[in-house]
Amino acid sequence: MTSLFYGLFDLLIIGYIVYSWYWQAVVDYPGRYRISSIIGAVVFVYVSISWNFIDITQAGAPVLLAVFLVMSVMDGVSGLGEKRIVISGYIRRTIKYSDLDQITLINAPLTNNKSYVVMELQSKGHVYYIRFAKGMEDVIATLKKHLGNDVGIKIESL
User: Fold this and answer.
1) Exposed site from 6, 12, 37, 49, fewest CB < 10 Å?
2) Residue 87 covered by a domain
3) Highest mean pLDDT: which of 29-43, 46-60, 81-95?
4) For residue 61, which phi and psi values (nearest 5 degrees)?
């Protein structure tokens, strides 16, 4: 029975990986990679094995953990696509440009005379963040290609 559970769960995660892979392929303006998705997955796998939450000797368990790690590597990707914004995370991967209420761009300086841009997206009562390693002007120009006139862009600086 446990092997059946692992097999079904493997298929669900593989389906999600294909879905995520598709949306990563349509990103034409990538954001910075979110490394915390990998760190969290590695900690989860380590704790699950060391505390015997997952019996690694069961058929399908090693495959489940490997597929989970692959999914976590893929979920760190975010960026702007032609039709949707791709965000990193497990539950919701994309936001339609028409669903956006407000966008706030924050210029965040780094110590070595470089900066990155944090984009705060507000959509239907939820807030999402994407970081870009590009300049503010470049991010604004790319956003204007995709946005309608009804979405406001607010610019801030740290």
Assistant:
1) 12
2) no
3) 29-43
4) -65, -45
